[in-house]
Amino acid sequence: MNKNRRYRLGMSAYNAGRYREAIEHLTSLVEGEKGTIALLSRFYLGQAHYRLALDCFKEQQYAQATQHFQAAARINPLGGGFARFLVACHVGTGRYDLAGHELENLLARQPDDAGACIRLALIRWKQGSLVEAVTILRQGVHRQPDNAELHYQLGVMLAADDELTEAEKLFEKTVMLDPLHVRAFEKLAHCCALNCRHERAMGYLKRAHELDPSNAGVGLQLNLLAQSMISGEYQPDIEWRMPISGPEFDEMAVDKLGEAITDEPDFVRSFLSLPASEVDEEVFSTLAVTLEHALRKHPEYADLHYHCGEIYNRLGNRVDAIRHVEWAVRINPRYVNALILLAQLYGQTNNWAEGVERLQEAIRKGGDYPDVHYLIGRLYQSGGQQDRAREAYRRALELNEKYQQARDALAALPALPA
């Protein structure tokens, strides 16, 4: 069975809720494989494992639930939706690209730069200088007592050094400052569990799960803690939430992904080459949200408008597709690919004459290709202009005598009168 067929079968099974079947199909597409099919299969394989883990837990199949939670957490350790997964795979979740001395100089100039403070502390921690790292973060917390992330990072380092009492207070301060800080709720649960305060740990993990229902790591911890607490008198009451399905707006992930696409717009192309499947709406809607977000920062980038038009076309949204591709041509009148796509979109909306005009413009701008003349022929045919269609097909064959589609289209036209 070829990759495309296995991919379509796997996505179809996932979409229908047949998660075991989806896992069977998708696993073979990710093991030792690269490329967009493998990337997308990996994301939905993780989703399938996670959803199956929830089903197993509800059926009290705890050992199987643990296996599937672990598989999901390995595949998508950050949790979250498609945008965050792409960021983790292609962009990275942290940029420690400044050397330690450069960060020190930056902090000397801008002592309230919390990001620089955290990065420098993490560099020192990785270098084995825990005392120095903790000192840097303590100074940061002193200067900015309302910064949740500084409290959290200091708590992580102290917890790693078994200073659990102070670490727990820092995590409590973190969630007080930022009630949506999922990782701090996880760390609070760890502190409580280590001190045998299991019910309180369960409460913190439940809150983390409520905030990030796609996070398989949180799900795994809930599952393991629940198993350790189950007894004849106590059954943990967990209200499992299903991972979000459909395009989500994870602002930080969308922002980072938008930066990556801005730097390399052809990144989108690899997704457009995927075979159609039942998950197209989720995947391409997420990409559309990301591109729109990037365009708010860079409205003058013709490539971003063009690729946004391609995405909307894939989603069947002709109005927004035309709007963006027209913007791409307005910004760069010599953008041949955009002119061709615009002509195709006009043809899909029965505006064949304007489509022909755009293709003729593409030819004048250097796009004298067989495909362009073939498209002109198709547009003329849709407008009932048989003679002009014939001329266009003949020109396509002049440029490429092996162009079978043009030859077949020409042969299908009514014969000229004798």
Description of the structure:
- With 418 residues, the chain is mainly alpha-helical.
- It has four domains: 3-91, Serine Threonine Protein Phosphatase 5, Tetratricopeptide repeat (Alpha Horseshoe), CATH 1.25.40; 100-229, Serine Threonine Protein Phosphatase 5, Tetratricopeptide repeat, CATH 1.25.40; 246-332, Serine Threonine Protein Phosphatase 5, Tetratricopeptide repeat, CATH 1.25.40; 335-418, Alpha Horseshoe (Serine Threonine Protein Phosphatase 5, Tetratricopeptide repeat).
- 72% of the residues lie in helices and 0% in strands.
- The protein has 23 helices and no strands.
- Helix 10 (164-177) packs antiparallel against helix 11.
- The longest helix is centred in the N-terminal third of the chain and has 23 residues, at 36-58.
- The radius of gyration is 28 Å and the shape is elongated.
- Mean pLDDT is 85; it is low at 91-100.
What is the top-level CATH class of the largest domain? Mainly Alpha
Could you spell the SSE succession in H and E letters? HHHHHHHHHHHHHHHHHHHHHHH
Which architecture of the largest domain does the CATH hierarchy give at level 2? Alpha Horseshoe
Give the overall average pLDDT: 85
Task: Note the main attributes of this structure.
single chain; about 425 residues; mainly alpha; Serine Threonine Protein Phosphatase 5, Tetratricopeptide repeat; 4 domains; elongated
The gist of it:
This protein is mainly alpha-helical and 418 residues long. The chain has 23 helices and no strands. It has four domains: 3-91, Serine Threonine Protein Phosphatase 5, Tetratricopeptide repeat (Alpha Horseshoe); 100-229, Tetratricopeptide repeat domain (Serine Threonine Protein Phosphatase 5, Tetratricopeptide repeat, Alpha Horseshoe); 246-332, Tetratricopeptide repeat domain (Serine Threonine Protein Phosphatase 5, Tetratricopeptide repeat, Alpha Horseshoe); 335-418, Serine Threonine Protein Phosphatase 5, Tetratricopeptide repeat.
